[in-house]
Sequence to fold (262 residues):
Amino acid sequence: MTDLQGVYARTEAGLQEIKARAHDLTRGQRNLLIVLDGKGALASFAKIAGCAPEQMGEVLVPLVQQGLVALVPGGSNRELTQHPPSGSEPLPAGSSQVQALIALAERVFEKHAGPVVLKLEKASASGGDLLAAAESAAKLAKLTIDESKAQDFLVEARRLISA
Amino acid sequence: MQLDMITILGLGAVLIMLVNLFQVISLKSQISGGVVGKSWNVMILLVVLFAAGYMILPFLATMPVETLRTIVSLILFFGAIYVLVTIRLIYGIIKELSA
Fold:
């Protein structure tokens, strides 16, 4: 049984998977992998993973089994579903907000998310203001993808950034 | 076919319109909707119409004057719509970027 209050973080393998897409992850698993930053409780990412909190175990377990995420020691005193392979250390949560925004963009814009993700990645690489990058990405989406989805993205992005 | 200035200009126009057609269709994959996407389908339709209309240029000399006048009027009419769509699109982009 997965502990919904447990705190998980990406491992080095998980970070590589975000870039390489080598594993056959579902959209929910990929979104969860992107946002697990070693901070929030697992249940708080249910919306991003696209499932109910009680179903989070089904999304999480394959990620743990493949060593892509790991329970953060001290984040929860309760059980760890499975330990990652040796040598895989949880990552610091440096770019977690950018990754969360990217996951959000992929969820909102689905197959059309490419240009928005690219814009967010560029902003992240240049160390620019994240809110400005999100607003700029929303404008791009409003012009070329969908006006209402762009609005939804911006509202959710502002909430993520201010959280 | 006599290769005079009118024919050369006509062939040039057809060539440029075919390039326009290729570009407007290629860009469609990057514009799935939104402010630009709404206008883009109309622009594709107009470019297709223009490309088809320009194809008759080599046969202009053999056409009756009345047919010729009708075709020129149609090209001018759809040209005006094209300009209107383009201006509205640019206005929409400026409005969005300055918001």
Summary: Residues 76-94 of chain A have pLDDT under 50 and may be disordered. Residues 96-162 of chain A form one domain.
